[in-house]
């Protein structure tokens, strides 16, 4: 597992990554297989499960990494990057595919 | 602006590639990535789309002229946003440099999508762009400074030559008179 940018946060990061990966590996294949009518219920159930399983370690890791990001002076650069590219939605498919769909 | 792109297939199902994505680093072939941190992650309770914001720390020796000109260091950081959409089976990863971002941006997009139950396509594009507004404003200040210096020198040149002419001809006129 990759280190955190701050040695102090690495143990918490490892715990969090382990928790996420275990959850994600159970999540993905049923999520792909879910029909559109099942999707919302499954997504809600798994989102709640993720919060219940990993929420606590996430809070601890997040506190640590936010402090480290500030100490490295990355908070301002991140703020600027978020303003320029919020990226709140998945980017649209490549132009070539869009052409195919519309023509 | 400069572009880079490549595309190829992995001989693995899409789900395996996407699970593997979180295990990519540390990697003995990509030793320039030295740290990976999650800054934000959400699971959309309606669509099931997972959005993750990470910051990757890289160590890469920059050419000396870049370090001198821009004051870069060996540590560089990249912000990465990924979306895993199980419904459309699309994974997109967008990355932008944080370090030296006041001078130039490298905007990278990666997409993983299934082409068969056992094959996944990978496509990557990158746009590298120097911040022209910055160069323009720097060039503009440089030009202003140069024109001011030119005006000052031109003024001094006029005064200086006026003195030379006066002195020279005053002396010459004095000589035959004596």
Automatic annotation (TrEMBL), chain A:
Record keyword Disulfide bond present: yes
| Pfam families named among the record's database cross-references | UPF0203
Q: Biased-composition ranges for Basic and acidic residues?
A: 77-87
Which GO molecular function annotations are given, in alphabetical order?
Answer: phosphatidic acid transfer activity
One cellular component GO annotation, for this chain's record? nucleus
* The protein, known as: Mitochondrial distribution and morphology protein 35
What family does the database annotate? Belongs to the TRIAP1/MDM35 family.
Keyword tags: Disulfide bond
GO process annotations (BP): phospholipid translocation
Which InterPro entries does the record associate with it?
Answer: MDM35_apoptosis
Phylogenetic classification of the source organism: Eukaryota, Fungi, Dikarya, Basidiomycota, Agaricomycotina
Region: Disordered; residue ranges are 77-103
Automatic annotation (TrEMBL), chain B:
Gene Ontology cellular component terms for the protein in this record? mitochondrial intermembrane space
Specify the PRELI/MSF1 domain's residue ranges. 1-173
The protein's name is PRELI/MSF1 domain-containing protein
Which organism does this record belong to? Answer: Laccaria amethystina LaAM-08-1
């Amino acid at each position: 597992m990759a280190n955190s940018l701050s040695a102090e946060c690495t143990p918490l990061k490892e715990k969090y990554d382990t928790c996420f990966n275990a959850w994600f590996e159970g999540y993905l294949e049923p999520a792909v297989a879910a029909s559109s009518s099942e999707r919302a219920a499954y997504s809600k159930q798994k989102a709640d499960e993720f919060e219940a399983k990993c929420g606590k370690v996430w809070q601890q890791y997040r506190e640590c990494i936010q402090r480290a990001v500030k100490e490295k002076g990355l908070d301002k650069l991140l703020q600027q990057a978020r303003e320029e590219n919020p990226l709140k939605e998945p980017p649209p498919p490549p132009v070539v595919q869009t052409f195919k769909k519309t023509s | 602006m400069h572009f880079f792109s490549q595309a190829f297939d992995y001989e693995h199902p899409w789900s395996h590639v996407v699970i593997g994505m979180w295990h990519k680093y540390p990697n003995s072939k990509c030793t320039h990535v030295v740290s990976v941190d999650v800054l934000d992650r959400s699971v959309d309770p309606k669509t099931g789309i997972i959005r993750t914001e990470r910051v990757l720390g890289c160590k890469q020796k920059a050419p000396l002229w870049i370090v001198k000109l821009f004051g870069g260091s060996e540590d560089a950081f990249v912000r990465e946003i990924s979306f895993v959409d199980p419904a459309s089976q699309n994974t997109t990863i967008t990355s932008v440099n944080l370090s030296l971002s006041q001078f130039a941006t490298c905007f990278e997009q990666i997409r993983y999508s299934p082409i068969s139950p056992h094959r996944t396509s990978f496509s990557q594009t990158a746009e590298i762009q120097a911040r022209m507004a910055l160069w323009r404003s720097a060039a503009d200040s440089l030009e202003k400074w140069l024109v001011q210096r030119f005006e000052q020198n031109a003024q001094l040149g006029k005064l200086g030559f006026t003195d030379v002419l006066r002195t020279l001809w005053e002396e010459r006129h004095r000589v035959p008179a004596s």
